[in-house]
Specification:
It is a single chain. This protein is an all-alpha fold. The protein has two domains: 213 residues, no CATH class; 255 residues, no CATH class. The chain contains 20 helices and no strands. The radius of gyration is 22 Å and the shape is globular. It starts with a helix and ends with a helix.
């Protein structure tokens, strides 16, 4: 199978994997949002910074280092396995003893037990991290899709059952841990790799020299994304944080999920082209155009129909989250742009630049947090929009120098998709305000109109990225010829 065919197949299965994982978890979350209160979701939101930082340290950038390395040995894999396991155990002990302090900081006593339970996920994740990295390296997302279907279904079912039984926030904890445990069991069942009794310091040092900067970058990114939860949880209330995190959940479904799919497949695929600059640029440009067409349409469309969407799916108790979701959709447009550009630093082996840009982005976020403390959540999100725009322009300018694809070129390439999506979203929003219908029928009409307008405008304007995706989909379905190399990039 050629690299192009492998990448297209990987994209398809990675999309199905993310649809299985994200879709089932999202559906479970919809049910749980009707059974639980915003405060219980807010309690989980207060733990995310500490759990996410710990997960970043456990990984330490080694999975990216393993994917990038072309000739990984058994010693390489075993070294990473034992390092992950040792660090996860040490971090779990740290979380266990710090849980009481964290609970007092937020003035929420239940957090002590919640953090100690969720911390077990670090040990579970460390045990399966190498096998999961091998699957990604091989672009075998068909296996990950099977695992995601089973683990997400079991985790979601357990969470819902416990919520019905009245276990409150613990239903969310059990759902998270059970999903991770099932995923681990299936990775060990369906992957033949097992660690050997060896730890090579030379291997560790070589990978850590690359991964350490990615670790620092990951920690800074986690701080950037999760400190807003800390600000809201500390200066407002668990219920208000719950409203904010619910809006984030809806926003993340199209934005971060789509980006995760593209990043997981594109990184190992583009890494094979790291010494072929023309092909690398062509593949990267095509990936950016296609990703942003989908992102703009989904994010602006969601902002346009946020009210019937939230009320229909999770109920009236989540009405305060509507305006948060609308504002976050505009911020979320920049996430794929920023993340895909950062991906290029890994492909080119410039983790030092990756780290510097993440430091700058986090420093830029400080004003938004200050605005949140003094003026409230909505002004904070508006400030975050302008910070995200500035961070993207800076990142694109730096990554563009690596492959000769400047920020100005990127903006020219994605601007037609943005204009198309903006016209669609404006029409959908006006239609929703004009229609005298209940929430569910209004949502159905708005979604149908948005999809029809997007396709119609793309056909009318002969938008290049749309035509490429259309041709690719038809070729995949019909078994016809693949797009020519000049059009497809990688």
């Amino acid at each position: 199978m050629s690299l192009r065919q492998q990448t297209v197949s990987g994209l398809l299965w990675s999309f199905l994997d993310d649809l299985a994982r994200g879709g089932l978890l999202f559906l479970s979350g919809l049910v749980l949002a009707r059974l639980l209160t915003p405060r219980e979701f807010g309690l989980i939101g207060m733990t995310t910074l500490f759990i996410a930082i710990s997960q970043s340290i456990v990984n330490s950038g080694f999975n990216q280092a393993l994917i990038r390395k072309q000739d990984c040995t058994q010693a390489d894999y075993s070294t990473v396995f034992y390092f992950n396991l040792l660090v996860s155990f040490a971090l779990y002990l740290l979380l266990f003893f710090a849980a009481g302090w964290i609970a007092r900081f937020f003035r929420e006593p239940p957090l002590e037990g919640i953090i100690r339970a969720l911390g077990l996920g670090l040990l579970i994740g460390a045990l399966g991290m190498v096998q999961q990295t091998q699957v990604v390296k091989e672009i075998d997302f068909k296996l990950l899709t099977r695992i995601s279907l089973v683990s997400s279904a079991i985790g979601g079912a357990l969470g819902i059952a416990l919520a019905y039984a009245g276990y409150g926030v613990w239903s969310l904890v059990v759902m998270t841990l059970s999903r991770a445990a099932v995923e681990l069991a299936l990775l060990w069942r369906w992957r033949s790799w097992r660690p050997s009794l060896e730890f090579r310091w030379a291997s560790f040092r070589a990978m850590f020299s690359f991964g350490s900067r990615l670790l620092a970058s990951s920690l800074i990114t986690t701080l950037y994304t999760q400190l807003f939860n800390v600000v809201i949880g500390r200066f407002f209330s668990a219920a208000e944080l719950g409203q904010f995190t619910q809006a984030q959940t809806f926003r993340n479904l199209p934005s971060q999920r789509l980006t995760a799919v593209v990043q997981r497949v594109s990184y190992p695929a583009l890494a094979t082209l790291q010494e072929e600059a023309p092909r690398l640029k062509a593949a990267y440009r095509r990936m950016l155009q296609c990703t942003m067409l989908a992102t703009f349409a989904l994010m602006l469309g969601m902002a346009a129909c946020a009210e019937p969407l939230l009320i229909t799916l999770v109920g009236e108790q989540w009405r305060p989250a509507i305006v948060y979701l609308q504002l976050l959709c505009f911020v979320g447009m920049f996430y794929p742009l920023h993340a895909i550009n950062l991906n290029m630093f890994q492909v080119r082996g410039r983790s030092d630049l990756y780290l510097k840009l993440e430091v700058i982005k986090t420093v830029l976020a400080a004003p938004a947090m200050a605005v949140g403390v003094f003026w409230g959540i909505q002004p904070m999100i508006v400030t975050l929009f302008f910070i995200s725009l500035a961070a993207y322009v800076l990142t694109a300018a730096c990554s563009g120098r690596l492959i000769g694809y400047s920020a100005a070129e990127q903006i020219r390439d994605i601007l037609p998709s943005f204009i198309l999506a903006a016209v669609m979203a404006a029409a959908v929003y006006v239609l929703g305000r004009w229609l005298p219908l209940p929430d569910l029928p209004r949502l159905v009409v708005q979604v149908g109109a948005g999809a029809t307008l997007t396709v119609g405008l793309a056909e009318l304007t002969r938008l290049d990225s749309y035509l490429y995706l259309k041709r690719l989909a038809l070729d995949k379905l019909m078994g016809g010829p693949k797009p020519s190399p000049g059009k497809a990039g990688a």
